[in-house]
Amino acid sequence: MFCYKRKDFYIEFRDLRYFIDLVESESYHATAQKNQVTRPAISAMVKRLEEECGVQLVFKKSSQAPLVITPAEQVLYKRAKKLVKEENLIKIQVKRANANNFRLGYSELAGKAWLASVITHLNQGRMLANIETKEENSHLLEQHLREGRFDVIVFSRLGDEPLPGIKTTPLQRYQYVLVVAKDSPLAQLDEIRIAEIKDTPLIMRHKRFLSRTSLDRLFAKTGFQPTKKLIVDNIDATLQLVRQGMGVSYLMDIAVENVPCVKAIPLVPSQLSYCYSSLGIRENFIPNEVQKQYLEILKKNQDLN
Fold this sequence. Notes:
Helix 1 (13-25) crosses helix 4 (71-97), helix 2 packs across helix 3 (39-53) and helix 5 (110-124) crosses helix 9 (289-304). This protein has helices at 13-25, 28-35, 39-53, 71-97, 110-124, 138-146, 210-222, 235-243, 289-304; strands at residues 3-6, 9-12, 58-59, 68-69, 102-106, 131-135, 152-157, 166-181, 202-204, 229-231, 248-252, 262-266, 274-282. By secondary structure, the chain is α/β, with parallel strands linked by helices. The protein is 41% helix and 23% strand.
């Protein structure tokens, strides 16, 4: 059983998990049900924590009244969340230490473009059998890397701001463009201002995608808002709608490469936005010998880009 222990301070992680659930649900009954224990077991947990901390954490004015959140409870809750998260990561890392595979997450466009050359190098080293790959959007990749679901990710970012817990290496820069049908009057332009599409439907991605984040920043910067818009998550569907003349879209330039019947129009310099593909490794990742071999190949491939 995991515990947090000092000479004068001893807390079991099980108690911290129960405590987190109690604070979030504000119910002894709900906490007991979630953890499949009795209500007295939750009351005993609170008593143990209060004895160890030397302060009252939880109290109720009456049996029917809601829980009263004390300042001490708030402090313990925030610290407990961090400790339990670290406990879960320790368990994952210990299991990964004996694994003979390598887990790589990659983003829809930038990651997929980079993955092809990685697979070629892995195939030359006869190492394809032990690699697991999964495609996700960049926001999820960051989250799942921190949680230990991936060993390495190839993902997209809008800038070079530091990411807590992740070591990043830049790979390539891409530009956001407006994608229009080749037979559209807009296709005659060499560059475009976002306001010039005010009468044209704008096909946008969902807010969880990086291109939408970049587009929303452009709206905030220019004050422009489309009068007609359509939310489509799938890039292939987006490009198909553009080809059919149903509207224009805002995507990375790599999305339009070798795609027939559409054209990428750069925005004017003051409205340009870039996206950077990056290699991300969890800062506390301790690779075993098998995983080190994969990391070495990734590093060599990174140097070739």
